[in-house]
Specification:
The chain has about 400 residues and is an alpha/beta fold. The protein contains 12 helices and 19 strands.
Length: about 400
């Protein structure tokens, strides 16, 4: 087993200026740096291991990694499980043009705090937390000071220029290590930290319980969107291209299900929806979709469609409709979403793999057959994962 060191600092100057870097993060935040005082830690010297992608589109291998000292404002988390998101697959394959190798993927982490930098706040060793798409931000810009940390110009994506959660341990700025509610189903909670807040945030921003909400796509994102919208009290319509998902969508809470391939059925819904959330990354009949919006209705995009979306101006102007989009969410948005999920017993539908079968799990995700999210359960050698062994979890 080899030892590798992975830079968690900034993207190179030439990569930083590429437009593709604005997909989910603009410019990674600087590391909080080496500790300036003693850190608080459980256990002795750590033997860190991670599943490492050395090149695009190649299988990952288990490596010993050097994480260095804990940063002054950082926390270290022993990974219990980590969700596998389609964004991990996109970064593995460098589909967005922002990937850096070697890479440690995984950004839906559930685990326990094992070490705290001297300036870390609000957490304690042994506390169970979650780390999602982002693991740091500057904490002093206008967006951070306004509570929109996820819009910080220096927001640090967890799996681009930073070591992710398919590992024994992960590091994060303390503000992005989110304490988990006691009533949350921890074993199934990982996907909430990325996919969950991605669909919850537009509902919290743009929906009311009396609204008619449409969810386009019943997959890893969409099935959670249906659950959240239904729990919020909305009248929910699910759009799916797969008739095999009709009954499942109703089981998730949809009041109505429509085939996204049925143009006649979509046409009948003209002027109906207060909010449409598109979770797919495929090209759609956007004119037909927008025509289903009510006056003042909104189409909100969270699926990473790489092709431009053509929009006829008059379809927006005459009915005061709008189109918007959003990334994941701020630490407060994530905490609010987790509290809502715990209160309403919302969890994603998942398939579990041991983390040692990570390459098989990625192949399963790439096949498009997952119902609906994958979670990798850490199964490292207990010597390399003392917190897991000590707590027998």
């Amino acid at each position: 087993m080899s030892m590798i060191s992975i830079d968690k600092g900034l993207l190179t100057a030439e990569n930083r200026d590429k437009p593709a870097n604005r997909l989910k993060q603009k410019q990674p935040a600087p590391s909080s740096g080496p500790q300036t005082g003693p850190s608080i830690r459980t256990g002795g010297v750590m033997n860190y291991k991670a599943w490492v992608a050395k090149r695009a589109k190649e299988p990952m291998g288990l490596e010993t990694v050097d994480l260095g000292p804990v940063g002054a404002e950082d926390v270290e988390v022993a990974v219990e499980s980590c969700g596998l998101c389609h964004s991990d697959l996109s970064v593995l394959n460098n589909e967005w043009g922002v990937s850096q190798y070697p890479a440690i993927l995984g950004h839906e982490v559930i685990g326990r705090v094992t070490a705290l930098g001297p300036n870390a706040k609000g957490l304690k060793v042994g506390q169970r937390v979650g780390v999602g798409w982002n693991s740091g931000s500057c904490m002093h810009c206008y967006q951070c000071m306004s509570g929109n940390h996820h819009l910080c110009p220096q927001v640090q994506a967890t799996i681009v220029g930073h070591r992710g959660g398919f590992a024994t341990h992960i590091r994060s700025h303390w503000a992005w290590a989110i304490p988990l509610p006691e009533k949350l189903n921890f074993a199934e909670a990982g996907p909430l930290l990325c996919g969950g807040v991605t669909v919850f945030a537009p509902l919290a921003l743009h929906a009311r319980p009396t609204d008619r909400v449409g969810i386009i796509g019943i997959g890893g994102l969409g099935h959670m969107a249906v659950k959240f919208a239904a729990a919020y009290g909305c009248d929910v319509t699910a759009f799916t291209s797969s008739e095999s998902k009709f009954d499942e969508a109703k089981g998730f809470g949809a009041n109505h299900v429509v085939s996204s391939r049925d143009s006649a059925a979509i046409k009948k819904l003209g002027g109906n929806f207060d909010l449409l959330i598109s979770t797919v990354n495929a090209k759609l009949d956007w004119d037909a979709i927008i025509s289903t919006l009510a006056p003042n209705g909104r189409l909100h995009i969270v699926g990473a469609v790489l092709e431009p979306i053509p929009i006829a101006a008059f379809s927006l102007i005459m009915q005061q409709r709008s189109v918007s989009g959003s990334p994941c969410g701020s630490p407060v948005a994530i905490e609010t979403m987790l509290d809502f999920a715990a209160r309403h017993n919302i969890a994603p539908q998942t398939e579990h793999f041991p983390m040692s079968q990570i390459n098989e799990a990625f192949a399963r995700l790439a096949s498009g057959k997952v119902r609906y999210r994958i979670i990798l359960d850490a199964d490292f050698d207990p010597i390399a994962h003392p917190t897991r062994a000590r707590n027998n979890i």
